[in-house]
Amino acid sequence: MKKALIVWGGWDGHQPKEVAEIFRGQLVEEGFEVEVSNTLESFADGEKLKGLDLIIPVWTMDRISQEWVNNVSAAVQSGVGLAGCHGGMCDAFRENTDWQFMTGGQWIAHPGNDGTEYTVNIKYNSSPLVEGIEDFTVSTEQYYLHVDPANEVLATTRFPVAPGPHSPNKTVDMPVVWTKRWGHGRVYYNSLGHQANIMEIPVVKELMRRGFNWCAEGKALAPSDLNAGAYTGMADNQL
User: Fold this and answer.
1) pLDDT recorded at residue 226
2) Are 177 and 130 in contact (CB under 8 A)?
3) CA angle, 174 as apex, 171 and 176 as ends, to 5°?
4) Where does the ThuA-like domain start and stop, copy by copy (predicted)?
5) Strand, coil or helix: 52
6) pLDDT of residue 32
7) Selection from 130, 148, 146 nearest residue 214 by Cα
8) 171-189 burial, b for 16+ CB within 10 Å, e for fewer?
């Protein structure tokens, strides 16, 4: 039985408790043993983290100790999967660039705020993770992010939709769903998920289900020499 840890908290506006419960239900249906925590101290035991198959942060904003970021990073580098959505993973700890390097991006704006209607465009044939999924429209926050060019982008959305200071620039396709590797570990992100009702949309829920499973499957494929060349972060990565 695969083991997953969900850690929720931070800004209440993203309904982290409710989103965490949706994710817990999905993972139980997929046969995971799931631990749910509402404290960042769950990242304090690095060896315990390495014994997991999947880590899911649902924690917007706030601050985190560098030691705990290093523990999560080491676990993922060893083969543990890391998956999350919206601000719960890619607007978690704004001061910590090591977290951003690992997750593949950082939120910077959502022009039009909540209720912006836009299309999510699936990149067909890009990955089995989006096989059979069609483009779809949502009405929610449209995330503008700074992203890692090494990400494998599986879905995008086009800016601008809502007017703003970015509008005079050319149109851009912003990643919505991506994967990347962090050492031997698999990382999955979906920028949807402003609140629990968005995570209940069937296509969004299916994208997350596939991402969770894909990330967790990577643990079994990791080589035995898990500590070779481990990245321990940058000394000047945060204020």
Assistant:
1) 55
2) yes
3) 150
4) 3-215
5) coil
6) 98
7) 130
8) eeebbbbbbbebbbbbbbb
**Spatial separation of the C-alpha atoms in residues 217 and 197, rounded to whole Å:** 28
Number of separate domains in the chain: 1
Amino acid at 31: G
> What CATH number did the domain enclosing 88 receive?
3.40.50.880
Residue 128 has pLDDT above 60, yes or no: yes
Q: Which domain holds residue 85?
A: 2-221
Q: Is the distance from CB of 81 to CB of 103 less than 8 angstroms?
A: no
Q: Residue type for 135, please?
A: D
Q: Which two tokens stand for residue 24?
A: 């817990």
236 occurs within a structural domain: no
Q: Give the strand pairing for 54-60 and 81-85.
A: parallel
- Percentage helix, strand, coil, to 5, in the chain? 30, 30, 40
Judge residue 137's burial from the number of C-beta atoms within 10 Å of its C-beta, 0-12 exposed, 13-18 middle, 19 or more buried: exposed
Instruction: Judge whether 231 lies within some domain.
Output: no
Residue where the block lists tokens 């096989």: 131
Residue 239 placed within a domain? no
Q: Is residue 194 part of a domain?
A: yes
Q: Which of 108, 114, 105 is nearest to 162 (CA)?
A: 114
pLDDT for res 232? 81
Nearest to 193 by CA among 204, 206, 209, 202: 204
pTM attached to this predicted model: 0.96
Calpha distance 43→108 (Å, rounded): 25
**Burial profile 10-23: b = 16 or more Cβ within 10 angstroms, e = fewer:** beeebbbebbbbbb
Report phi then psi at 124, rounded to 5. -60, 145
